[in-house]
Amino acid sequence: MSPTAVNENPNGIANGVAPNGVQKPTTGNEMLAAASEARAKAISTLPAEGFDWRITLEGKVIAITGANRGIGLGIAEVCLANSAARVYSLDLLEPTDDFLALQKRFTGRLLYLQTDVTVEESIQAAVDKIVEESGAIHGMIANAGMTKHQPALDFDRPQLEKLFNLNVFGAYFCCTIAAKKFIELGVKGSIVITSSKVSDGPNRAAPSAPYGGTKAAVRNMARTLAMEWSKYGIRVNSISPGFVRTAMTYYVETAPDWDLKMQYYGGMPRLALPQELGGAYVYLLSDCASYTTGIDIPVFGVVGAW
Ligand SMILES: NC(=O)c1ccc[n+]([C@@H]2O[C@H](COP(=O)([O-])OP(=O)(O)OC[C@H]3O[C@@H](n4cnc5c(N)ncnc54)[C@H](O)[C@@H]3O)[C@@H](O)[C@H]2O)c1
């Protein structure tokens, strides 16, 4: 760096003095002291003293978007089986029969708040309601999403906007609204975004370039949010499922070459059950993952290795 670079003015800081009058550290030792002061102010993600190191969600209140069916509902089941105090599904649709059955199994611990994650006010209202009812929120899983299978040349702008609005903007605002609430409450929250195997390559079973773009966007975003929010004790990660048996993948097993493809797969030549993803989410939501942030966990068996 040239000697003058210190006084260049990208942030409105001139001659070593910030706009608020604070002297900007310029020597190596001043910088070390400032960094150590900043570290002291940050909230550590370390668990509380006496932590028993069990992977559990005991006492935790978790919000999952799109948990009325499919992957979200599977994750909800595994969170509840691992002692989450309460799981809230923030979903647009009315609860499915499967959701109601799970609600019966975990009486009073699985709740539904009608929410449209493409509308910020709706997400905010849901998060406020969770805190009002349950006293806190500790985890947010930004999971609601959709796909559209169609050759790239056939997509028009409204179709693209619909996909990005739900998968990217929806996830983004779920993350930021949850993070602001964690900061307000002084909670070391954990955020997990559902990305996809196709975030780093094509879906060979069906053309869906814009969908892959949305999943790459959220996977990348998780890493930067993790960096920005670690000083608040907030962790942000993503999970990339392969093919999971839900309404979204009805077509996979109907492909004429499915049986043939299966002949070549060792290991797990099948679609995953939504619950089979749950352990990864539970880990990331738990205090045992206190040093895990900014990563993506791929959960796609062998089928996803195409
Ligand atoms: N199924 C798979 O194989 C697969 C693989 C990788 C990633 N994913 C991702 O997993 C997530 C869940 O997928 P799924 O297969 O369970 O899909 P799904 O269609 O079965 O479930 C999606 C849920 O999201 C809800 N939802 C839709 N729009 C919403 C909105 N605006 N506000 C709130 N909720 C809304 C739906 O009502 C539904 O309950 C998605 O993000 C998807 O991209 C799925």
UniProtKB/TrEMBL annotation:
Indicate, by first and last residue, each region the UniProt record lists as having compositional bias (Polar residues).
1-12
Task: Tell me yes or no: is Oxidoreductase among this UniProt entry's keywords.
Answer: yes
Show the InterPro entries listed in the entry: NAD(P)-bd_dom_sf, Sc_DH/Rdtase_CS, SDR_fam
- Where does the secretion signal sit in this chain? none
| Region spans: Disordered | 1-23
The protein's matches in Gene3D superfamilies, at most eight in alphabetical order, are given as: NAD(P)-binding Rossmann-like Domain
Q: Is ATP-binding one of the keywords?
A: no
Looking up PROSITE patterns in the UniProt record yields: ADH_SHORT
The terms under GO molecular function for this entry are:
oxidoreductase activity, acting on NAD(P)H, oxygen as acceptor; oxidoreductase activity, acting on the CH-OH group of donors, NAD or NADP as acceptor
Alphabetized, the UniProt keywords read: NADP, Oxidoreductase
Q: What does the similarity note say?
A: Belongs to the short-chain dehydrogenases/reductases (SDR) family.
Protein known as: Uncharacterized protein
What is the species of this protein? Orbilia brochopaga
